C-alpha cells in the first residue's frame, strides 16, 4: 500500500509540474483508465462558449438545446478549465499549453506545436470559424463583438491565413467541412456579454443541423466552455455528441488538455504540450474503434 501511495503521489507531482510549466492550473486532473481507442471521425467540430459554471447551464430551462445535447450525448460531469481568465484556456485547448499567458492581452505570436499544425503535418485540414471576424486571416485584436483573445490560431503566424475565417464561411454542406473545425461565437452568442438563453439559441440555430448530420455521417460535435464564472474549482460543462457516442453521464475528470488529446488520438496525430500527459476519452464510444 505504501508503494502504491508513493507511486500515485509521483503521478500527481508530475501533473502539477506539467501544469506549472504551462502557466498554472486551478484544478489537477488525475489520469483515468483507458480501455480502447478513439474512433476516427470524418469531421470534428468544437464550439467554445464562455464563463459559465455547470449549474448555470445544465438542468436550466433557459438552455434547452444544450441540455438536449447532453441527454443524447456524453456529458462529462467532472470537466474542468485550466485557469482564469479566458485566453489561456483557449490556448490550452488548441496547443496543449497556456504559453505562459496569464491574461487576455493581445496580440501574441507563438511557434510551438498546435492542433492545426499537427493536422497539416498529417495532410489533414483545420479551420477556425469566428463570428464577427472582419475577413479571412484578420489579425485585429477586436472588432465589434469579435475578440481575438478567443481565437488562439490567430496567434500562430506559421499557420496560413486561410485557417482563420469568419463564421459566415461555415459550409452549409457539412461534408465540405475540414477535418477539425473550431467555432467561436461572438461576445454575445458565447454567453460572455449576453444571456445563457441567447447562447443556447445561437448554438441550436447555427450548429443544430450539423449535430443531427454528424450522427449519421461518422462525425462529432464537442461543446465546451473556456472557464466557469470564477467560482471555486473552475468546473465547466463539456458534451460530446454525434456518431459512435454512447449517451450518458460520465464522471471521469477531464480538462482542455484531455479534450485536445482525444482529438489528436482520433486522427493519430502528434501530441502538443501537456496533452501528451493526459488520457484520451475512450469509454464513451459505441463503435468505430480501430
UniProtKB/TrEMBL annotation:
Instruction: Indicate whether Flavoprotein appears among the record's keywords.
Output: no
Q: Does the keyword Transcription regulation apply?
A: no
Among SUPFAM superfamilies, the record links this protein to: Alkaline phosphatase-like
GO MF entries? phosphoric ester hydrolase activity
Write down the Pfam families for this protein, in alphabetical order: Phosphoesterase
Keywords attached to this entry: Hydrolase, Virulence
Membrane-spanning parts: none
By what name is this protein known? Acid phosphatase
